């Protein structure tokens, strides 16, 4: 059948003018059916690539890979590094692990202003406030900062009536308590105001108005082991 068509086309071509529209269209059709061109398909594929069909996907995968890598590194850094409450603002910031540590620190402070922070490792307000507290400690090397973990020192904290975290006590050495209050990040100015008030020459503010000598070992533990509340951020 193909031979018959070719013969017919050849006869039409030889018997008619080459400029005949009918002959030209038939010859073009025959040529296209015998030798199909692959170039349009190649061009089409090339267009898909250039418009992003194969280039956008690798870009998305690379971005996702970077995000996963960043999360992994952040998690490793958080795990390997010290916990937030284990960091401090310098040599004038001391961790208190027992009642005796607390009494020794107060007695050795002399006439220095002592700021005691009561915190919980689970307390979000304590964690948010802590970086600013470290900065304050660095800016005031003459002040002694004591960090007391509530869960590690519950009998002592309850004897000092610490019920809300974070909580602060101000002492002048072992003479007694000057002031105490709860303080969240939103109320940080309260802590700065108290430092400005009490970190002055001793004679300018008179004797401490606290509870007097601190003798915590004589205090009996609280009857109920109630957890401390977290200070409101408002």
UniProtKB/TrEMBL annotation:
Top-rank taxon: Eukaryota
Cross-referenced CDD domains: TRX_family (cd02947)
Gene Ontology BP terms: cell redox homeostasis
Region (Disordered): 207-234
One Pfam family linked to the record: Thioredoxin
Biased amino acid composition, Basic and acidic residues: 223-234
Keywords: Disulfide bond, Electron transport, Redox-active center, Transport
GO cellular component term, pick one: chloroplast
InterPro entries named among the record's database cross-references: Thioredoxin-like_sf (IPR036249), Thioredoxin_CS (IPR017937), Thioredoxin_domain (IPR013766)
Thioredoxin domain mapped to chain residues: 66-200
Family in the record: Belongs to the thioredoxin family.
Name the record gives this protein: Thioredoxin
UniProt source species: Macleaya cordata (Five-seeded plume-poppy)
């Amino acid at each position: 059948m193909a031979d018959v068509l070719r013969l017919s086309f050849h006869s039409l071509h030889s018997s008619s003018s080459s400029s005949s529209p009918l002959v030209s269209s038939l010859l073009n059709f025959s040529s296209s059916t015998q030798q199909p061109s692959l170039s349009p398909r190649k061009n089409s594929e090339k267009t898909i690539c250039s418009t992003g069909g194969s280039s956008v996907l690798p870009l998305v995968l690379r971005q996702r890979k970077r995000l996963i890598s960043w999360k992994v590194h952040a998690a490793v850094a958080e795990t390997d590094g010290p916990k937030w409450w284990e960091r401090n603002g310098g040599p004038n910031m001391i961790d208190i692990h027992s009642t005796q540590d607390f009494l020794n620190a107060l007695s050795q402070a002399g006439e220095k202003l002592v700021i005691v922070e009561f915190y919980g490792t689970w307390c979000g307000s304590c964690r948010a406030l802590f970086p600013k507290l470290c900065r304050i400690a660095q800016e005031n090397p003459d002040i002694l900062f004591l960090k007391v973990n509530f869960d590690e020192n519950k009998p002592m904290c309850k004897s000092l009536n610490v019920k809300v975290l974070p909580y602060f006590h101000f002492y002048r050495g072992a003479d007694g308590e000057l002031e105490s209050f709860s303080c969240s990040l939103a109320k940080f100015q309260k802590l700065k105001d108290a430092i400005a008030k009490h970190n002055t020459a001793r004679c300018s503010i008179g004797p401490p108005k606290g509870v007097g000598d601190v003798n915590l070992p004589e205090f009996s533990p609280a009857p109920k082991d109630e957890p401390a509340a977290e200070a409101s951020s408002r």
